[in-house]
Design goal:
This protein is mainly alpha-helical and about 400 residues long. The chain has 14 helices and 4 strands.
Amino acid sequence: MGLRDLIRKKDQLDGDRGGGVDRETLDRLAGPEFTFIRSDTHTQEIIHPPSHPNSNFLAASDAASPSKTRRSLDVFRPRSRGNSASSAGDKDRSHDSGRRRLSQRLHLSKAPPTSEFVPENLPQINVYSAEGGGAGRDGASVAGAGATTEKDAYEGQWEKRATILAEANERGQRRSRPPSVVATPSREPSPSRLQRDYGGGAGNGGGNGNGGRKDGVVSSKAIDEQIQEAIRLHEEGHLDQSTRLFGTLADPRGANNPLSQVLYGLALRHGWGCDPDPERAVTYLSAAASNAAAVESMALQAGLKKGGAAKGELILAIFELANCFRHGWGIPRDPVAAKQYYETAANLGDTDAMNEVGWCYLEGFGCKKDKFAAARYYRLAEENGNKTLGNTWIWKDKYNPTNSKK
């Protein structure tokens, strides 16, 4: 006899008190009592035997008793199989909650990252507009007179962008004074590298000197000689004397020399002959960028497409500020600003910045991952003599600029 038949027979016997059934028979037929409960992760409900004699189905109770919700699995909460109103309500709420949480986890509605040191109206420049000229991998120049003119105009756009970033950085520094951040070692250019790359006070390409003031006056011959002397002291190991001289030349109330401000900022950041002070270092690097940007803005307004006397100092200050934003030296880490500053310096000819912005695109630091853009900048750095070992993948045909434009 099946369990269901046994229960039905027991009910019939219980209801037939006058039928002459003895107690022994009644007890023999009386099976054990069961409570049927249907449950899932979130709800449970008691199943009662059918009340109608012709019904062969178990019936759920009208009121289900929900169990405690497992909050850790909300995102993966299954649909409730209950038929009651409370169970259906739990299902709807669970579905809505799961959908909302899943969209948050996937960042479907997340706004693009921004930075207070990068203005929203920063001009966007088509980096592929300069692909027609320049050098190929073998170094052979393919630029004619027209391509040279276009290249100068292209660099002029990036130099204007650099001046906008320098101004935005100056405004951001006024608004916020970040807490102290411990500096860590890095690959920083020594004064000898600065002398080699930027002329040690002779401007970017040999002019009369650095742009040292916001009124556009270039540094004097005496200041250039003092910068050379400070570099000599640094190379000979007299770091305290070198840093002291750089500090004198960097004083905004004195010479206010942009190159000296960059070098003094690096000395403060890494403790060259002084106690490390990364916050003051950012202040001097920002002053260098601002002063150089003021000179270069006047040069651009005067129609000098190749820039003015302070172009080298502007590029160097922008690159060093990018390092500060990337590592959190003297200022909170800001991946968006770091990537934008690196890219600006890279397009103005800084080969270290080319490798750094290539890394940003490769790793998605401050931007979306883009291996085409990463390959482009790594190629550019290698073509200009700054090769990174292990980057042979950048020369695969699928990373050619023409393929990335499709």
